[in-house]
Amino acid sequence: LILIAAIVFANRPDDSTGSDGGGTDDGNRPGANPTAPSGQQPVEGFTNGIPSGFPQSAEGAESAAANYVVALGGEGMFQQESRRAIVDTVYSPEFAAQEADAIDRVYSDPDFLSRIGLSESGAAPDGSTFVSRVSPVGTRIIDFAPDRATVAVWYSSLFGIAAVDSLNPVTESWYTNTYDLIWVDGDWKVAAFDQVDGPVPVARDQRASTAEEMAEAVEQYGGFTYAR
After folding, report:
1. What is the pLDDT of residues 96-151, one digit of tens each?
2. Which of 44, 82, 102, 170 could lock 76 by a disulfide, CB 3.0 to 4.6 Å apart?
3. Domains and CATH numbers, the chain
């Protein structure tokens, strides 16, 4: 299941309540609650550029899941050195040891990289920009205990090659990832996950940006971290 995101990219066509915060607050109010001040300070630590040191709470688990989906859906997964750092940071030690080699095989497979427009080293063609960026829309606690949590993250994904003659232009997709998190050495870590399509909104009738506009936007606007 951890390879599902890569497999989805490779096969693209060519053309619930927490103990504090998140989900429903007391079981009496339906629907999700927006993020609100909780008295907890945002995390200040980073490991390999990824936020770390999340609170051992439902809200901390949601924040961890949102940050982890960003890291696992980013360009760093397509370079060997950064990919290993992401895997070692986000996954539990047991899960990383079990799956790291399989992840490497998928993300370094020449046929897979060629299909998405990258070289065997994971680089975009000269004069183009590779885009792989995830933006969480919301999180939901499905199950929570002090040492484990199940969190769903709904997000949009931009993926493709921004170039005038690109055969894989940047497109938007929508997914929901469900993470099984465990509390390990003072932080939340991913022990398993699943991915499904959607929910997918109806697209508005807007003009698509040019490849140049898309590349400039990705270069000029940095991504976010998601401490709650």
Report:
1. 999 999 999 999 999 999 999 999 989 999 989 999 999 999 999 999 999 999 99
2. 82
3. 4-32+42-220 (3.10.450.50)
